[in-house]
Amino acid sequence: MSDRYDGVRRYHAKRPIQTARRITEALERMRAGSTLRLPAGFRWTKGSLAKEAGVNVNTLLKKKDGKFVYAEQLYAFEQGEAPAENTTLTKARLRIAELEAAVRRLQRELLDRERVIDSLRKG
Q1: Is 77 exposed, middle or buried (0-12, 13-18, 19+ CB in 10 A)?
Q2: What residues contact 20, with CB distance under 8 A and at least 6 apart?
Q3: Which of 13, 71, 114, 123 is the least buried, fewest Cβ under 10 Å from its Cβ?
Q4: Residue range 5-63, pLDDT digits in tens
Q5: What is the Cα–Cα distance from 34 to 98, expressed in whole angstroms?
Q6: Is 115 helix (H, G, I), strand (E, B) or coil?
Q7: CB 32 within 8 A of CB 92
């Protein structure tokens, strides 16, 4: 019976680590000015950081035992700099993120065009 839930337990055990990584990467993109989800000239707020990271703002402010779960990322955000241990986000990784965003945009455009073609065929 416990084997049935092992995968779920592993997933939930890794989740805070993945979320911390997403927040840190979003913070670095914000500092570099190459955001994926925010428009140019975005406001430097925790809500903006959450949106760029793809998490709920309450996730950023989540506490466990009276302490912020993502205290390092919040401190770095308030200081305006990424945590020292995670500053190795290279230009290549930023370029990959930009290209992935471009692919998603092109996929949406393709889907929109396919819908137009389908509506023309039907009508």
Answers
A1: buried
A2: 70, 72, 73
A3: 123
A4: 887 787 777 888 899 999 999 998 988 888 889 887 788 899 999 999 999 999 999 98
A5: 8
A6: helix
A7: no
pTM score, two decimals?
Answer: 0.58
User: Which ranges in the chain belong to alpha helices (H)?
Assistant: 2-32, 46-53, 57-60, 71-79, 91-122
Question: Among all chains, which residue has been given the structure tokens 């945009």?
Answer: 105
DSSP state of 45: S
Which residues have CB under 8 Å from 25's CB, separation 6+? 53, 86, 89, 97
Domains of the chain by residue range: 2-86, 90-123
- CB contact at 8 A, 79 and 69: no
